[in-house]
Amino acid sequence: MIRDKTMNELNKTATFVGIALVLGVVAFASAPRRAAPDLFFDVGEPFFPEFTDPDAASTLEVMEFDEETASATPFQVTNQGGLWTIPSHHDYQADGAERLANIAADVISLVKDDFRSDNVADHEALGVIDPSDLTTSTLVGRGTRVTVRDANTEILADLVVGNPVPNRPGLRFVRMPEQKRVYTARFEANISTRFEDWIERNLLEVERDQVNHIVLNEYTVDEVTRRASAPSEFTLDKVDDTTWNGSGVPENQEVDFVEVNRLVGAIIGMRIAGVRPKPAGMTGNLRDAAMAGRIGQADIIDLINKGFYPTAEGGLLSNEGELLVRTTEGVLYTLRFGEIVYGRGDAILLGSDESDDAEAGPGENRYVFITAAFDEAALPEPDAADTDAHASWERRVAEGREKAERLAARFARWYYVVAASSYDRIHKPREDFLKDREEANAGA
Asked: Nearest-CA neighbor of 172 among 85, 242, 106?
């Protein structure tokens, strides 16, 4: 009897336990769950898992915040029909393919190194406020927004890069614009909004050992009559790495090859501070272009305002003379130096109504009108009987012509603004390239 009673109690207990377990399971299954119970659930994952091919990147947009002007400054490099251009700078040609591919590769490899904050209040201290965010009035704590798009303008990657992480070199605070969450990530991509970082630094595409002929063409222009004084030409021809000959050098003097080599270095390293688009007809014979209606009176006035004067024959003079440079490839460059460019910032880079106004800022730059042509005299034809030499000559002529035509087409579109530091090194009188003969010094 006692045994049966005990068994009944055990059965009841087991039943209650079973019911409790079932109820517990049901309660667990039906209770509301957090979508992300672990703040670190995605640490170690890539930011943009679907972006895997750097060659898919066709446009890079970078936006920074200027605290002085309290405005966001955009910069873009994009591929238009196979040509890399900078839309914000009159679609000037960019040297961007390799650079953009490297940036894209860095963005592809971007991984969420560590979770930092889910609190919007932390964004200012971490420097990840979107620079284009108009909903917040703070001028500090704004990061750099980097957006990569494909050829169809679809977004491949979009992020706000903030402050460096203290004591962790190479790491930055990073946030995706549509999210509050901030991560640390290794971000070392060389992002730049500087115009000069995206263009061909060697504008003339010339190497030092290729320059073998230079002409300083010095003259002045009467801005009223538009007539030039008699030109004074000084020609320099390269003999070898340490010798240059000059035209009309006095007997007691010789060419200072050190100064000439410095000039060559300045030509190669000429720094472009800005660009201005030219009318399409502002090349070749200007008189013919005007007669044909390819350029108008307003274009001529603009040309003159920049310090360049059309001649009756359809040529062009400049109020600060010319520099002619020829290479072993047969490409002849003409650099005509015009008026001073005033102003700062975008007034220099892009041009503005104040660019020719002395009140707009320091006059530290100069307009330059550049042309390129092939000079047949640079590559004399060898004896046709020497088949190998003649074939080599034909190849060099073809390559020289192709390069000259390509550069001529590029230069035809632009007035260039050369930085004062470059202009001062390039625009020099003949006296700067002469020195007393060493023999004369020794005899004295």
From this structure: 106
CB 65 within 8 A of CB 131: yes
Q: Distances in Å between the alpha carbon of 110 and those of 147, 173, 262?
A: 14, 12, 44
Tens-of-pLDDT digits for all 444 residues of the chain?
444 544 455 455 545 445 444 444 444 344 333 334 456 678 889 999 999 998 899 999 999 988 777 888 888 999 888 888 998 888 888 876 777 888 889 999 999 999 999 999 999 999 999 999 988 888 899 999 999 999 999 999 999 999 999 999 999 999 999 999 999 999 988 888 888 888 888 899 999 999 999 999 998 888 777 777 877 899 999 999 889 999 999 999 999 999 999 999 999 999 888 898 988 777 777 878 888 888 888 998 999 999 999 888 888 899 899 999 999 999 999 999 999 988 777 767 677 554 455 444 555 799 999 999 999 999 999 998 898 999 999 999 999 999 999 999 999 999 999 988 899 999 999 999 999 987 655 554
Within 13 Å and on the Cβ side, how many CA atoms surround 240? 1
* Strand partners of residue 369: 336
- The pair of structure tokens assigned to 106 is 């860095």
Asked whether the CA dihedral 370, 373, 377, 383 is positive or negative, the reply is positive
CB-CB contact of 322 with 308 (8 Å): no
Residue 213 CA to residue 401 CA, distance in Å, equals 18
Which DSSP letter does residue 31 get? S
Q: Where are the alpha helices (DSSP H) in 296-386?
A: 297-305, 346-349
Burial class from Cβ neighbours inside 10 Å (0-12, 13-18, 19+) for residue 108 reads buried
SS3 (DSSP) at 369: strand
